[in-house]
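Operator note (shift B, R.M.): manual run for DUF1080 domain-containing protein requested after the automated queue skipped it. Running by hand, logging everything below so the morning shift can see what happened. Input copied straight from the record, untouched. If output looks odd, do not overwrite the archive copy; leave it for review.
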Amino acid sequence: MKRITVMALGATLLLASASYTPPAAPKGWEPLLDKSLSKWRTYESYRHQLGYRGKQPTDAQGNAIKPIGYDKNEANVFSVVMQEGEPVLRISGEIYGCVFTKQDFTNYDLKLKVKWGSKKWVPRLDEPRDSGILYNSQGECGVDYWHSWMLSQEFQVSEYERGNAMGDFWCIANSTADIKAAYNATKDTLRFNPTAAPVTMGNGRSGFCQAAANYESPTGQWTELELINVNGKSVHIVNGHVVMAVDNSSSVVNGQHQPLTHGKIQLQSEAAEVYYKGIMIKPLEAMPAQYASYFKQNK
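Run finished. Output pasted below as returned.
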């Protein structure tokens, strides 16, 4: 009798799970993640090793190794699991690369949640876990230092350690931007400071700026991220806190600045296991008023 009861309970739970429908996206928002990754493509470059210095990896004979390429999923780096009826993207990090949207986006609000896995890979075994949201992504993958991503701007997704934090900024490839920033306490890195004067990032200068502060959720909990991106201006938000404002997004081509204000969205695979869920996007006509002050000239 007990066995029949347990079996019946199990069947009931399976039926409930199969019939569970996750909450619909809020009005005006488009979900970007489903269990088949139908709105995304993939790119894999290499399993990077220690000592890599921005050069394309070579074989034993010194010949350049070709990247794995587009729409490949060697080692099952990219996978989607269903949790409580909701798709969750797992990026193992074992091979450098990205998933990127098939669609080009401009002027939008992007929201998603992130949580770290336990696995780390060479060359980041002794480094903070790392991933990133690359936006205004244009052109081919592989044009950056790691030969893995498109020209873009980065909303860094990083484990808090040694000053690295969620919402840090990186120029990717030949991108550039202006950020109000001042040197941090150790005077070795710029940190976002809305009261400081703008500093041009990239284009031969430092391409990295630290977030204003660390607002990452405790280990094992989801961190909510939001990216506002309108007409070359962007705001990085972590758990409701503005940690970065980026202005005059552009790229430098043959010494000339060109606007970098639209493009695909990439999620990086960068030697650390990471999970994403709740990825959704909403079009915007203008920068929301509550963020306008971040782009005004300081007196």
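Quick read of the result: The radius of gyration is 20 Å. Residues 40 and 130 are 21 Å apart (CA to CA).
Leaving this for review. - R.M.
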